[in-house]
Amino acid sequence: QVQLVESGGGLAQAGGSLRLSCAASRTIYGLDSMGWYRQAPGKERELVAVIRTGDATNYLDSVKGRFTISRDNTKNTVYLQMNSLKPEDTAVYYCNVRVRFWGRDTDYWGQGTQVTVSS
After folding, report:
1. Residue 88: left if φ>0, alpha if ψ -120 to 50, beta else—which one?
2. Of 19, 39, 60, 70, which alpha carbon lies 20 to 30 A from 87's?
């Protein structure tokens, strides 16, 4: 089992910045990707950013140019730097780790951290 511990959420004003961190409890073998999802009230969970082995990244269109995902393999940690925040970024943000063995994917999730952006 892999446990993920998130930190860095909170309240920010529009135009401000926050940095989310997600630390895994141990080295992850078979790592396929690390990413961040978010879920706003009354909406489905959506993928915000993902970083794959080889460091290829993908972003939700609405956060491109504002958010940056990165990771520190020595600390088993993934980060999400969020700049130029907008009220519509308000959501619970979840860290995700996907492990792949023998063609089978297993997803691990953090507990979620609230991000609230005021106008």
Report:
1. alpha
2. 70
